[in-house]
Design a protein that fits this description.
The chain is mainly α. The protein has one domain. It is built from nine helices and no strands. It is globular, with a radius of gyration of 19 Å. It starts with 5 loop residues before the first helix and ends with a helix.
Length: about 230
Protein backbone atom coordinates (compact mmCIF):
# COMPACT_ATOMS: atom_id res chain seq x y z
CA UNK A 1 0.00 0.00 0.00
CA UNK A 2 2.83 2.39 0.80
CA UNK A 3 4.78 1.78 -2.40
CA UNK A 4 2.02 1.37 -4.97
CA UNK A 5 -1.34 2.81 -6.04
CA UNK A 6 -4.37 1.52 -4.18
CA UNK A 7 -6.05 0.81 -7.52
CA UNK A 8 -3.17 -1.51 -8.43
CA UNK A 9 -2.76 -3.37 -5.15
CA UNK A 10 -6.38 -4.05 -4.24
CA UNK A 11 -7.49 -5.78 -7.48
CA UNK A 12 -4.52 -8.15 -7.22
CA UNK A 13 -5.94 -9.43 -3.92
CA UNK A 14 -8.59 -11.37 -5.85
CA UNK A 15 -5.83 -13.90 -6.56
CA UNK A 16 -6.30 -15.11 -2.98
CA UNK A 17 -9.02 -17.37 -4.37
CA UNK A 18 -6.54 -18.86 -6.82
CA UNK A 19 -3.99 -19.64 -4.11
CA UNK A 20 -6.70 -21.04 -1.84
CA UNK A 21 -7.83 -23.41 -4.60
CA UNK A 22 -4.25 -24.59 -5.19
CA UNK A 23 -3.79 -25.18 -1.45
CA UNK A 24 -7.04 -27.09 -1.27
CA UNK A 25 -5.86 -29.38 -4.06
CA UNK A 26 -2.28 -29.83 -2.86
CA UNK A 27 -2.61 -29.61 0.93
CA UNK A 28 -6.16 -30.76 1.71
CA UNK A 29 -6.14 -33.25 -1.19
CA UNK A 30 -9.47 -32.18 -2.65
CA UNK A 31 -10.57 -33.17 -6.12
CA UNK A 32 -11.08 -29.84 -7.94
CA UNK A 33 -13.42 -29.78 -10.92
CA UNK A 34 -12.09 -28.76 -14.33
CA UNK A 35 -14.61 -25.87 -14.39
CA UNK A 36 -12.94 -24.40 -11.30
CA UNK A 37 -9.54 -24.41 -13.01
CA UNK A 38 -11.09 -22.77 -16.07
CA UNK A 39 -12.50 -20.11 -13.73
CA UNK A 40 -9.02 -19.57 -12.29
CA UNK A 41 -7.65 -19.01 -15.78
CA UNK A 42 -10.45 -16.56 -16.60
CA UNK A 43 -9.87 -14.58 -13.39
CA UNK A 44 -6.08 -14.38 -13.87
CA UNK A 45 -6.27 -13.38 -17.54
CA UNK A 46 -9.02 -10.81 -16.95
CA UNK A 47 -7.07 -9.31 -14.03
CA UNK A 48 -3.94 -9.04 -16.16
CA UNK A 49 -5.84 -7.37 -18.99
CA UNK A 50 -7.49 -4.95 -16.56
CA UNK A 51 -4.18 -3.85 -15.04
CA UNK A 52 -2.48 -3.45 -18.42
CA UNK A 53 -5.38 -1.58 -20.00
CA UNK A 54 -6.27 0.64 -17.02
CA UNK A 55 -2.65 1.61 -16.24
CA UNK A 56 -3.33 2.77 -12.65
CA UNK A 57 -0.72 5.28 -11.54
CA UNK A 58 0.01 8.48 -9.68
CA UNK A 59 -1.90 9.80 -6.76
CA UNK A 60 -1.55 12.18 -3.83
CA UNK A 61 -0.31 10.37 -0.70
CA UNK A 62 -1.90 12.93 1.65
CA UNK A 63 -5.62 13.55 0.97
CA UNK A 64 -7.16 16.70 2.40
CA UNK A 65 -9.35 16.54 5.49
CA UNK A 66 -12.51 17.34 3.51
CA UNK A 67 -11.82 14.39 1.22
CA UNK A 68 -11.45 12.02 4.18
CA UNK A 69 -14.65 13.39 5.73
CA UNK A 70 -16.73 13.11 2.56
CA UNK A 71 -15.55 9.58 1.74
CA UNK A 72 -15.91 8.48 5.35
CA UNK A 73 -19.44 9.84 5.63
CA UNK A 74 -20.63 8.28 2.36
CA UNK A 75 -19.05 4.89 2.95
CA UNK A 76 -19.96 4.91 6.64
CA UNK A 77 -23.59 5.65 5.83
CA UNK A 78 -23.66 2.89 3.20
CA UNK A 79 -22.16 0.39 5.67
CA UNK A 80 -24.67 1.40 8.35
CA UNK A 81 -27.65 1.03 5.99
CA UNK A 82 -26.46 -2.36 4.75
CA UNK A 83 -25.90 -3.52 8.33
CA UNK A 84 -29.45 -2.58 9.29
CA UNK A 85 -30.85 -4.31 6.19
CA UNK A 86 -28.92 -7.44 7.09
CA UNK A 87 -30.60 -7.82 10.46
CA UNK A 88 -33.77 -9.35 9.01
CA UNK A 89 -35.00 -11.16 5.93
CA UNK A 90 -34.15 -14.34 4.03
CA UNK A 91 -30.72 -15.84 4.81
CA UNK A 92 -29.34 -15.35 1.29
CA UNK A 93 -30.29 -11.67 1.20
CA UNK A 94 -28.87 -11.12 4.67
CA UNK A 95 -25.62 -12.80 3.67
CA UNK A 96 -25.41 -10.63 0.56
CA UNK A 97 -25.93 -7.31 2.34
CA UNK A 98 -23.63 -8.20 5.24
CA UNK A 99 -20.96 -9.22 2.72
CA UNK A 100 -21.39 -5.95 0.83
CA UNK A 101 -21.02 -3.99 4.08
CA UNK A 102 -17.91 -6.00 4.99
CA UNK A 103 -16.40 -5.40 1.55
CA UNK A 104 -16.87 -1.64 1.95
CA UNK A 105 -15.18 -1.86 5.36
CA UNK A 106 -12.22 -3.71 3.84
CA UNK A 107 -11.94 -1.06 1.13
CA UNK A 108 -11.90 1.68 3.78
CA UNK A 109 -9.38 -0.33 5.78
CA UNK A 110 -7.07 -0.38 2.76
CA UNK A 111 -7.14 3.42 2.57
CA UNK A 112 -6.44 3.71 6.30
CA UNK A 113 -3.60 1.20 5.97
CA UNK A 114 -2.08 3.27 3.18
CA UNK A 115 -2.40 6.42 5.30
CA UNK A 116 -0.97 4.67 8.39
CA UNK A 117 2.07 3.39 6.48
CA UNK A 118 2.66 6.90 5.15
CA UNK A 119 2.60 8.34 8.68
CA UNK A 120 4.89 5.54 9.85
CA UNK A 121 7.39 6.32 7.11
CA UNK A 122 7.24 10.04 7.77
CA UNK A 123 7.07 10.17 11.58
CA UNK A 124 8.13 6.76 12.90
CA UNK A 125 6.23 4.52 15.29
CA UNK A 126 5.72 7.22 17.90
CA UNK A 127 4.40 9.68 15.36
CA UNK A 128 2.08 7.09 13.85
CA UNK A 129 0.57 6.31 17.27
CA UNK A 130 -0.44 9.94 17.88
CA UNK A 131 -2.21 10.26 14.51
CA UNK A 132 -5.66 8.99 13.59
CA UNK A 133 -5.07 6.62 10.60
CA UNK A 134 -3.79 3.71 12.69
CA UNK A 135 -6.86 3.82 14.95
CA UNK A 136 -9.22 4.13 11.97
CA UNK A 137 -7.43 1.10 10.54
CA UNK A 138 -8.11 -0.90 13.70
CA UNK A 139 -11.76 0.17 13.83
CA UNK A 140 -12.34 -0.71 10.16
CA UNK A 141 -10.64 -4.07 10.67
CA UNK A 142 -12.83 -4.94 13.63
CA UNK A 143 -16.02 -3.81 11.86
CA UNK A 144 -15.09 -5.65 8.67
CA UNK A 145 -14.34 -8.86 10.57
CA UNK A 146 -17.64 -8.76 12.45
CA UNK A 147 -19.64 -8.07 9.30
CA UNK A 148 -17.86 -10.78 7.33
CA UNK A 149 -18.48 -13.30 10.10
CA UNK A 150 -22.14 -12.28 10.13
CA UNK A 151 -22.34 -12.87 6.38
CA UNK A 152 -20.71 -16.29 6.69
CA UNK A 153 -22.98 -17.20 9.62
CA UNK A 154 -26.35 -16.37 8.11
CA UNK A 155 -25.94 -17.61 4.54
CA UNK A 156 -23.96 -19.81 2.15
CA UNK A 157 -20.36 -19.05 1.21
CA UNK A 158 -21.34 -19.12 -2.47
CA UNK A 159 -23.35 -15.92 -1.84
CA UNK A 160 -21.02 -13.96 0.42
CA UNK A 161 -17.61 -14.81 -1.05
CA UNK A 162 -18.05 -13.38 -4.57
CA UNK A 163 -19.57 -10.20 -3.14
CA UNK A 164 -16.67 -9.79 -0.73
CA UNK A 165 -14.06 -10.39 -3.39
CA UNK A 166 -15.61 -8.24 -6.14
CA UNK A 167 -16.92 -5.21 -4.21
CA UNK A 168 -13.72 -4.74 -2.22
CA UNK A 169 -11.46 -3.90 -5.22
CA UNK A 170 -14.23 -1.98 -6.97
CA UNK A 171 -14.83 0.22 -3.91
CA UNK A 172 -11.07 0.58 -3.46
CA UNK A 173 -10.74 1.88 -7.01
CA UNK A 174 -13.45 4.44 -6.28
CA UNK A 175 -11.63 5.51 -3.11
CA UNK A 176 -8.28 5.62 -4.91
CA UNK A 177 -9.64 8.31 -7.21
CA UNK A 178 -11.73 10.07 -4.56
CA UNK A 179 -9.03 10.29 -1.89
CA UNK A 180 -5.67 9.88 -3.55
CA UNK A 181 -6.36 11.26 -7.01
CA UNK A 182 -5.00 8.17 -8.73
CA UNK A 183 -5.19 8.17 -12.52
CA UNK A 184 -5.92 5.69 -15.28
CA UNK A 185 -5.31 5.51 -18.98
CA UNK A 186 -6.47 8.50 -21.04
CA UNK A 187 -7.52 6.25 -23.91
CA UNK A 188 -11.30 5.62 -24.11
CA UNK A 189 -10.57 2.31 -25.84
CA UNK A 190 -8.26 1.19 -23.03
CA UNK A 191 -10.78 2.21 -20.37
CA UNK A 192 -13.48 0.26 -22.20
CA UNK A 193 -11.25 -2.81 -22.29
CA UNK A 194 -10.49 -2.33 -18.58
CA UNK A 195 -14.19 -2.11 -17.66
CA UNK A 196 -15.06 -5.18 -19.72
CA UNK A 197 -12.13 -7.16 -18.28
CA UNK A 198 -13.15 -6.23 -14.73
CA UNK A 199 -16.67 -7.48 -15.46
CA UNK A 200 -15.25 -10.71 -16.90
CA UNK A 201 -13.07 -11.08 -13.81
CA UNK A 202 -16.13 -10.67 -11.58
CA UNK A 203 -17.98 -13.32 -13.60
CA UNK A 204 -14.98 -15.63 -13.27
CA UNK A 205 -14.95 -15.13 -9.50
CA UNK A 206 -18.63 -16.02 -9.26
CA UNK A 207 -18.08 -19.12 -11.39
CA UNK A 208 -15.05 -20.08 -9.30
CA UNK A 209 -16.93 -19.84 -6.00
CA UNK A 210 -19.70 -22.04 -7.42
CA UNK A 211 -17.46 -24.70 -8.97
CA UNK A 212 -14.82 -24.99 -6.24
CA UNK A 213 -15.34 -27.62 -3.50
CA UNK A 214 -18.03 -26.41 -1.10
CA UNK A 215 -16.37 -27.72 2.07
CA UNK A 216 -12.92 -28.68 3.36
CA UNK A 217 -13.43 -32.45 3.30
CA UNK A 218 -10.58 -34.27 1.51
CA UNK A 219 -11.58 -36.30 -1.54
CA UNK A 220 -11.03 -40.01 -0.69
CA UNK A 221 -9.68 -40.90 -4.12
CA UNK A 222 -7.16 -38.06 -4.13
CA UNK A 223 -6.12 -38.79 -0.56
CA UNK A 224 -5.41 -42.48 -1.18
CA UNK A 225 -3.50 -41.74 -4.36
CA UNK A 226 -1.17 -39.48 -2.38
Amino acid sequence: MHNGPLSLVQPILVTELVFVLVLRRVWIHQDVAAAAWVSVLVVCLALAVFLVAAEPSGGNPAPETKQWLSAGLVFGAAIAVLTVLGRAGPPMRRAAVFAAAAALCWALEATFLKAATDTLAAFGVGGMLIRWPVYALIAAGVAGTLLEQAALHVGPLSVSQPILVVINPFASIVLSVWLFGERFSNSPADITVAVVSFAVMAAGIIMLTRTAPQDLTPSPTVYHES
